[in-house]
Amino acid sequence: MDIKIIYNGEYPRLCRGELSIIINGKKWDFPNRCLESGGNICFSEESGYDICLGDWTINEWPDKFPEEYKQSVISAINKEIPHGCCGGCI
């Protein structure tokens, strides 16, 4: 399976980009804000805050997206898009 990731999200709001995936030549446009970071931000008196990184998940898929492609797409996204919880939503 040939998967190409097209994504324009960037720091400080990594999760706010436009995502398209091309699978075997067919393009799928994903809904806005479909990516969700597995990272988080923790606050502490010592350091102010710490950022933990984590894998991306998809919280909304395009209509009629094939179930059998989902895990491969998530794996490709986590290889291509930098992990992060940038704190842009705080």
Description of the structure:
The chain has 90 residues and is mostly beta strands. 12% of the residues lie in helices and 31% in strands. The chain has one helix at residues 70-80, and strands spanning 3-7, 19-23, 26-29, 35-36, 40-44, 48-52, 57-58. The strands form 3 sheets. A 3-stranded antiparallel sheet has the order 1-2-3, covered by helices on one side. Strands 4-7 form a two-stranded antiparallel sheet. A hairpin with a 3-residue loop joins strand 5 (40-44) and strand 6 (48-52). The longest helix has 11 residues, at 70-80.
Brief overview:
By secondary structure, the chain is mainly beta.
Number of helices: 1
The largest sheet has its strands arranged as 1-2-3
Provide the gyration radius in Å. 14 Å
- Helix fraction by DSSP (H/I, runs of at least 4): 10-25%
Q: How would you describe the shape? A: elongated
The residue-averaged pLDDT reads: 84
The sequence of SSEs as H and E is: EEEEEEEH
What is the strand content? 25-35%
